[in-house]
Amino acid sequence: MLAPDTRAAYTRAALERLIAPRSVAIVGASPRAGSFGVRTVENLADFAGEVFPVNAKYESVAARRCYPSLGALPHAPDCVVLAVPREGAEGALEEAAATGAGSAIVFASGYGEMAREDAGRAQRRLGDIARAAKMPLLGPNCMGLVNHPLRAGVTFLSEYARAPQGAGSIAVVSQSGALGYSLAQAWQRGLGIRYFFSTGNSADVDVGDLVAAMAEEPEVRAIACLFEGAASAARLREAGERARAAGKPVIVFKLGTSADGAAAARSHTGSLAGSAVAWRALFERAGLVPVEDFDALLEYAKFFAAAGTPGARGAAAISGSGGAGVMAADKAAAHGVPMPQPQPATVEKLRAIVPEFGAARNPCDPTAQVLNIPDSFGRCCRALLEDPQYGVLVVPSTVALAETVKDRVPTMARLAREQVKPVALVWLSEWLQGPGAEDYEKDEKIPVFRSMERCFAAIAAWHAHAGREFAPAARRAPAGAAQDAQRLLAAAGATLTEREAKRVLAAYGVPVVGERLAKSVDEALAAARALGYPVVMKAEAPGILHKTELDVVRLGIANEAELRPAYAEIVANARGHELHGVLVQPMIPGAEVIVGARVDPEVGALVVVGSGGVLVELIHDTVAALAPVSVGEAKAMLARLRGYRLLTGFRGGAAADLEALADAIARISELAADLAGEFEELDVNPLRVGPRGLAAVDALITRRG
To answer: Would the pTM of this model clear 0.85, i.e. be above it?
Structure first.
């Protein structure tokens, strides 16, 4: 079998005996109150399968016969739980392999999480034993798993024995045990959690494997993933692609985004695209739906599970509170979700129901009078849902009242089932578990949000996910570009000069500015006359990464009288550096854009697009994607920039040539993907884009050390 960082993700069939065991053996089971072994046995009290406590010291544990060894069992178990200390785990795992066990779970800690070489070696040995025996291993340092339909609580957390019996359509896959189980405990309030997995240190089975397996699970409609990091980014990407192909949305929350080493980067791109940005780019390319808020994870999962494929982009909102309607409109605008006014026929239907002092519009306010008129609320909702402009109905629930619940809950349930458009409820009452809350939570067809912000963020993400392009990018660069670029890199130093970097870009068909290198003021004057004033002058020295910081750039030089002192100042300010000369370039008009690339050690090559010039690190207006990207993807990246309007003719200005810009981004992304093993960071800053065409006017490439 291939090493765990290169193998493909496990299939559902390969993990069958782990995910859906028919028999579970607990090695280290003991009657000691609070021990991991007895808790696991107790959590299997209602398990639809066989349970075998294993411990030579006892005849019974939790009223079950206790066996002296795995070899003494009546048959090889599907799953062996090692509820033993680290010192005994390896031997017990070898015994499990020898008896033909189908899978194993290791609770013990003290492995890779300790960042010690001996602990890491011990963890690798566990993985090697499991893979050699074709016995999938969960852990070590994990909390186990829950298969709710089988009532298989293969975990040491004692609360599972008292969990509600219902099974839903959401799978929770988590590296963190406690945080993951905190999500799974949503079943206590009625949310339909079908599976819970804690992967811990992932000596073998990891998050990618379980996401891929859940993508094949017929009754799972959405996967909530709590993610820290992975030995194989490629495997997680493969898992996401499998889930996307199966129509199973994966909502992912990444832990550990604050300290990603960006401070050590040499280029603008490196400082703006740290590891958190890289992982987000991978999530998006794999078809995963990233969220920034832990509280959003299950809300998004339930919404995506219930919502299906989006239709019309418009959202309608209805509430007996005018203020809640205003809040909905505000949050919709903030997330770019349109809330168009209803069509005339819809308005007529609403006016027949809504009092004159209400609002027969969007947001719709039927006022509190709807409480006195049977089914008036439902009729208003149906009128809005029948309007073809709306693809989703948002229902803010403001005050939790028992008198409202008796009619509203069944009405919402019917609405959610009468048509394909999702009906999302926003629970605004601070009586968090007030009348009706649990009824809505239990209904798999009604997504429930605890904030208006997250509701409209989820709607926006729903449309973005459906509209994302996943087709392979068509090649833009000329044949032989990679070979030409590799030769140029091989002939350069650790950091390429500006001219060398632009030759690499030109090999990929990226337009670059015309220029001449002057080694004296007279050569600079001759270059300016040949290129035509006004010109730009800047120092060329491989040790100067950011020229503006050393004041070795002069813009808009209009004549000889300005050029002479400018040349002298540049040379003086570059003193102490290996100055190759002074570059003379024509002034290129147009908007400034940065296009860069870097190679993340875990995720791979990224392309980054942002507002260019010296402001790039000040306003952090950037978008990153895995390389390569298509022209269509490049256009979508540009549209996500806050400064996008500056490229489209803001306030009468000339619009930039977006086709040429998208083409250049695609070519640079191909360069990044082709040469990922050759370079660390690349900056084209700025790329000047005019109404017709563009040119790279500065570039930086640092090679891999």
So the answer is: yes
